[in-house]
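Hi R.,

Here's the chain you asked about this morning:
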Amino acid sequence: MTMATLTDFNATASGVGGPLLGDTEFQFLRDFVYQHCGIALGEQKRQLVQGRLLRRLRALRLKDFSSYCELLRRDPEGELGELASVISTNVTSFFREMHHYDLLINDLLPRWLEAKKNGGRLRIWSAGCSTGEEPYALAMVLAEALDRTGSKVDARILATDLSPQALETARAGTYALDRLGGVSDERRSRWFMRGEGSYEGWARVHPRLRELVTIQPLNLLHDWPMRGPFDAIFCRNVVIYFDKPTKQRLFERYAGLLEQGGYLFLGHSESMYGLSDSFELVGRTVYRKRTS
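And the predicted structure, written out as tokens:
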């Protein structure tokens, strides 16, 4: 999901020229989305869901929402990623919330690389990587730190998301030039290859960055195959729509995968206040796992 967030949808654009979303179907979808995605859909989201899912119904050639609900009952995992993509909007950018990257550049990465120089491993997880801007921005500052220090540390970034469309974009690593607004001219020159001909107006991330980033599908509410430990987890603008019990469970699972003293980065509108005793606030939406 950096970020998959529900957004308001113009009521006049939904429900036109298609079936209506009835009470029974909407309640099923609310329960399904909460169970599988941890997102609580309020009644005010009915028109959003109806408008967005009409396109999915047409793509699947289904006649109504009842048929779509039946599809989810038969094959919940097969359609889950598509449903998550339909009802969410991936809002992300390169170097969003720059103070987090400043902390990495000026403090954390130099310290980690020095501590691990004799054969250690460095792992960062972008949980909810969306279309890839966050993990590739992390890869830029990581690669720069490795080059500055001449470090041979085994360093990798794991990037996960639920949305198949977002992951497809992330794997391609190709972005319109107007998506590079947060990237300095120096980094554009160093870490992107500008397209030519039919690819004019596009840029692709450098192979070095792609080597540092592993992109995989993952539902944060389901089992996690990775064992960690991670030095840092970025989960920014993901948990804002989760309810309190879901947030609490997720934060404790993050704590279990972080190194002692590892860092958890949240989004600008998110907080861990009153939700976990495993972390301490050490910066603006930056939390450190407590050492015992």
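Residues 29 and 274 are 30 Å apart (CA to CA).

Let me know if you need anything else.
M.
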